[in-house]
Amino acid sequence: MDDLLTDFIAETRETLEALAGEIVAWEADPEDRARLDSIFRFVHTVKGSCGFLDLPRLQRLSHAAEDSLAEVRAGARAPDAALVSAVLAIIDRIGELNDALEANEMLPEGEEEFLIAALAPGAATEAPNVAKINVLPSTPPTRAVSRSIRLPVELLDRMMAGVSDMVLARNELSRLLRASDANSATDVAFERLSLCVGEMRDAITRTRMSRIDALFSALPRMVRDLAADLGKTVRLEIDGGDVELDREMIEMIRDPLTHIVRNALDHGIEKPDERRQAGKLEVGRLRIGARQSANQILIEVSDDGRGIDADRVVRKAISAGLVSSEQAAAMTWSRKLDLIFEPGLSTATEVTGISGRGVGMDVVRANIERIGGTVDIESNPGQGLRLSLRVPLTLTIIPALTVSAGGTHFAIPRSAIDELVRPKGEQVRIERIGGEMVAYIRGARLPVVDLSRFMGLSSNDEPPSLLVVLRAGGGERYALGVEAVHDHEELVVKPAAPALMASGVYAGTTLPDNSRPMLLLDVAGIAAAASVGITPSVVEERAVDRRKLKAALPTLLFHDLDGVTRGVRLALVERIEDVATASVVETGGGQLLPLNGRLTMLHSAATLPTSERLRVLRLSDGTAALAYAIDQVVDVVELTGEMTPAPVAGPIAGVLLHDGLPIEMLDPYWLFTNALTAPANEGSPLCLVADADDPWAREVLAPLLSAAGYRVAFAGEPTEDRISVVLTAGTAPEGIDAPVLRLRGTPEGAGDESIYRYDRDGLLRALNRHVAGGK
Amino acid sequence: MKGLYLIARIADETIALPATEIGSVVEVDQIATVPRVPPHVAGLFALRSRVLTVIDTRAALELGAIERSAVMTAIIVECDGHSYALLVDEVEDVIEADLPEPCPALLTASWRRAAKGTIRRGEDAILLVDPAILVAGAEPLAA
To answer: Are residue A199 and residue A217 in the same domain, yes or no?
Structure first.
């Protein structure tokens, strides 16, 4: 049954039981104002809930009773005995309907009309009849035994604490048992106990869980009302209401989610005529879904409205003085979009009563981050907006990493950790800038907070041996220097005392299995206390970082095939790979290399070496990829200084001086321009698929070939170009001067050169061989 | 009407705490220190599965610090939903006494803040201390 309905039934019954005494007292003294008020409150509450739950019969009854009682309260009517009986009859009837509702039965209709009629001022004479109806219930009371009870949360908390005690006692017992060489019978008994304790902990943890329906169930009504107010039509789709999460967590998400939904309706989804003009369905779509992924709950709210234009956000931010135009110019689209989470920014041109001035997205993010969650935004201007909230499953159990600094252990929430690095070598190192430590990690510079010094546990100025890269919220990152990393654990976290929380650097206390209390660090709090990445300077610092990056570009130095030392921007290098020299395919003056089943343009400064293996750099501009053949990698360095541009456009952009030696820098622009034209469809080798009528050939083989960079033609189709290879599972068509690649349907070899048709690698290799050999 | 009071010693002063606000008296051995907190927060202590915040009552009253030894005596109190272990120099007794009277004498600033009145034990007047004040610690200097 619907959770809300169950709640309603339980609540109504509880109130009815509590009200029983009041009713009798009111009957004895109809002038008693306090009794009248409590009965009025009851029918009023029932009326409200019924409207919400769509229970028209109950609503009619309670509404009628409420009206009469309101007249009495207003002094317009004297509470005579007839009225009292009529109201009491209605309350009894509400009780009966409530029971019927729970038992999922229907009571005969019609009787309510008598009851309601009896409320009328002139109906006094009918009062005895009312009583009669009441005395003759048409159905015997078959109250189903209630299977749900309401418990105070404190009781659940006490149970949880008790079970936690038991788990600790069990752990201690287990240690003692291991030390004492107890016999196996004891071990077996202990195992059983241990299992029971574990099951009990799970069960009690579940009592704190609730279906996310509790959060979603109020949305349809809200969306309906809001849409009606705004003159929009919206279809709401809700998905994943059966996902469970901590009750308290649900309460923490309620406000942010409501805010997001309001925003979507108010600013996102357009009015019907506007939607029609934009070529969309008049009915806007709002989708809210929840699902569990690992120990997080992902809640997505997406609409097909107008989305958010990041450039407009930036213009707003500039005019609000949040960023300067130079800073804005350096921002990526997603970073611009992130600005809507900055305090004091609204993109709505009109201020409305529904979602106000856009104050709130900053509050939404702050609220979600406070419970260890994250908010991501994806906007497709004109197409819609998607907000993803990720929150931990419970407030109390947090996956954490334990680290130590200055001899003290601390826990760090795993959700805040980007990576763990050891500052050794060129790629990851600690530099000093103005006396302060800065971590250089593969091209990015992050401020370093040394945990033991920050905590005042040591005054040692040595660079830390281990860095934990943390996300402090708002996209800002910093590196926390620690001495050691100990364990990944699921920790039960409790709020720390106010004196501890006031320090701003702790998120709670926890008690690991070793019974030594430990503190959970507040990652954003530490950033603020160490004054890294505090909000006003976020944008500023980023801009500074960018300038620094521009001044010193991380560059990969390598010996090229022609013996010259060249450099390429590290950011472009996806990986360094060794490939078989024989796999290189020569086509029309260019060279192609199969990488991951795709033909990639291979650039080389000289003829390829005759050795069996070839080392290539895989370069990527984000979408396109190309390979660059090299001799060997020399180093990764930071190149500073001015580049002297090359006089003519070509693979070399210019020359830089590094340690007094000239370094030729590759021109990625030129390389990619050429790479993109080379494997284009026109020049790619053409495969002829002989079995034109075979669905497998059309639906499975052809897409594979296209994906690998070949053009595909089917037998019987006219083709002008030279066919490089013919693929067939049966007979090859006559009169085509091209190598034939035979496919077979079984994995077992047929003794010929055929290839099993699902041997993807074998197939692509053979194609390569044939295409190269066919030249 | 009489009430029960726990009698303890803090910094050579005999004090009383209302027994209704006290969970238990325990011996505290291993305290996990907590950096970057006010001086009266001595650290954390695990009492079974509960994590208690240990309060140095001397420091809270700005009367120095409780001498650290291997085993110390602490009074467990609940305050705003959190459990605290108040480190004291000594716990003497639980007595029954009449309801507190106002403080008769002029007190030093820190005692004046913590004292809620006095109770009588025989001929002696004993300061009745509010545990919540001890938990809150030294008053921040007026800014």
So the answer is: no
My answer on whether A407 and A525 are in the same domain is yes
**Do A471 and A577 reside in the same domain of the chain?**
no
Mutation choice for A interface testing from B30, B48, B134 by most A CBs within 10 A: B48
In sequence order, the 6+-apart residues with CB closer than 8 A to the CB of A263 are: A355, A358, A360, A361
The answer to whether the CB of B30 falls within 8 A of the CB of A516 is: yes
Each residue of A484-501: pLDDT tens digit?
A: 988 887 777 777 888 888
B35, A495: Cβ pair inside 8 Å?
A: no
B54–chain A nearest CA distance, Å: 10
Cα(A261)–Cα(A692) distance, integer angstroms: 52
Highest mean pLDDT among A161-170, A496-505, A535-544: A496-505
The predicted-structure confidence for A507-538, as pLDDT tens digits, reads as follows 888 888 777 899 999 887 888 888 764 333 33
d(CA A53, CA A30): 32
Asked if residue A721 and residue A689 are part of one domain, the reply reads yes
Phi, psi angle pair for A147, to nearest 5°: -100, 5
Residue A627 counted as domain residue: yes
Considering only CB atoms, A517 lies closest to which of B45, B80, B136, namely: B45
Q: What is the pLDDT of residue A773?
A: 64
Q: Do A500 and B80 touch (CB under 8 A)?
A: no
Domain co-membership, A749 together with A611: no
Rounded to an integer, what distance in angstroms lies between the CA atom of residue A96 and that of residue A93?
Answer: 5
- Domain count for chain A, please give it: 6
Residues A131 and A158 in one domain: no
Residues comprising chain A, all counted: 775
- Residue A164 with chain B: CB contacts under 8 Å: 49
Which among A475, A536, A534, A467 has a CA at the least distance from the CA of A504? A534
Q: What is the pLDDT of residue B75?
A: 95
HSE toward the beta carbon, residue A609, CA cutoff 13 A: 17
Helix, strand, coil percent values for chain B (each to nearest 5) = 15, 50, 35
Cβ within 8 Å, pair A457-B51: no
B141 domain residue, yes or no? no
Lowest mean pLDDT among A200-204, A262-266, A354-358, A380-384: A354-358
Domain that holds residue A239: 213-308+347-392
Instruction: Show which residues on chain A lie within 8 Å of chain B, measured between beta carbons.
Output: 161, 164-165, 167-169, 406, 408, 455-457, 494-500, 502-503, 505-506, 509-511, 515-519, 529
| Domain, as residue range, for B6 | 2-136
Residue A176 lies in a domain: yes
Looking at CA atoms only, how far is residue B87 from chain A in angstroms? Answer: 16
Residue A466 has pLDDT above 50, yes or no: yes
- Nearest by CB to A456, which of B35, B40, B45? B35
**Residues 6 or more apart whose Cβ sits within 8 Å of residue A376:** A387, A388, A390
Q: What is the distance in angstroms between the Cα of A406 and the nearest Cα belonging to chain B?
A: 10
